[in-house]
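Appendix B, example 12.
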Amino acid sequence: MHDIRPLIPLLITAGILIGGNGLQGTFIALRGIEEGFSTSVIGMVGAGYFIGFVFGCVYITKIMRAIGHIRAFSALAAIASAASIMMVLVIDPISWFLMRLVQGACFAGLFAVVESWLNARVTNATRARTLSVYRFVDLGSVTAAQYMIPLFGVSGIDLFAIIAMALSLSLVPISFADKSSPAPPKDVKFDIKVLWSVSPLATVGCIVIGLTNSSFRSLGPIYADGIGLSVTAIATFMSIGIFAGIVLQYPLGHYSDKLDRRVIILVSTIGALLASIFLAFLAGESEIANFIGIFAFGAFAMPLYSLCSAHANDHAAPGQHALISAGTLFFWSIGAVVGPLFASFLMEAFGPHALFAYVIVVLTFFAAYTLARIRARDAVPTEKRRMRFRSLLRTSAFFSKLATPPNEKDGG
């Protein structure tokens, strides 16, 4: 801990941002229900966040290079805080869509600033410990944030104010993190052709993960409310799905390093598919059954992003790993824009269980596509793989650099 003490302010800032982001996703969906918004409107609002996220990913390095880390962070935090307040001042679907779009762009930039800063300050000796603390902060802050909803309630201005306060207070620890900002990072390029040429499976996989996992994050509260769960049970439902993602992350990653990674991707996809079948057709309105089902879904579905990224890197040439990291995040964002929109229309037409019926269709396609890719190309031998499995957050392309041990980097 002595070695990573200088990084603690940045880690605290990351925890505030990740927790606030996790709280907003659940809270805004539930508040939309209370305001009388239809499921499709709430899906549109959720898609707005991911549209903004795409733009934030593309332009944040240009902003950091122009004005530096701390000024970029301050400006984005202020804008995101103002957008949170605006949502309670103007309760209108179009306004909410625009404010979530602004917040998506801001959060993509805020995460990039923090993770770029961490990556510049971390040393070879502290990389693994910093990453472990970061993942603990991620899991703890998102889980704890869900329970602020039953604590403060969905009505009123309380949670909007708390989110705005958190964004403002996130400036405090990062302001004390260092007397000077690190050198501006290299521009992150988004060449969408590279990822497809390197790995069609990883490209399709990232889109599928955006279509499914982001629909759960955006519309899971609507599903849980629709089957009659209480506000506290809804918070628990979402927390279980998020927490479960860490349970099989490393066992699946371990075996993917030893076996054909596509087989592990197929196993993970089928596991998430079976859990979706259980949630769509067997769990009904039982609270316990839905908790069990969403735990299984999260355990298998959440590691898919990291598995697809690792598979793409197996086929990457020297110098391509930075493009792969940016590409996986970009294609995930594209899927995340479309998924909540399409799933929300289905839920409005056919009821809450249509969410996981939709996930079943998408994952069935992906399982079949994975089988086709296994037959189409031989696996990369384990001794020729340039990178091992890494557990990745979908926050910024800089997290991939933070998670990559120095002996696995290629300078790309």
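Residues 321-350 form the longest helix (30 residues). The CA atoms of residues 14 and 114 lie 7 Å apart.
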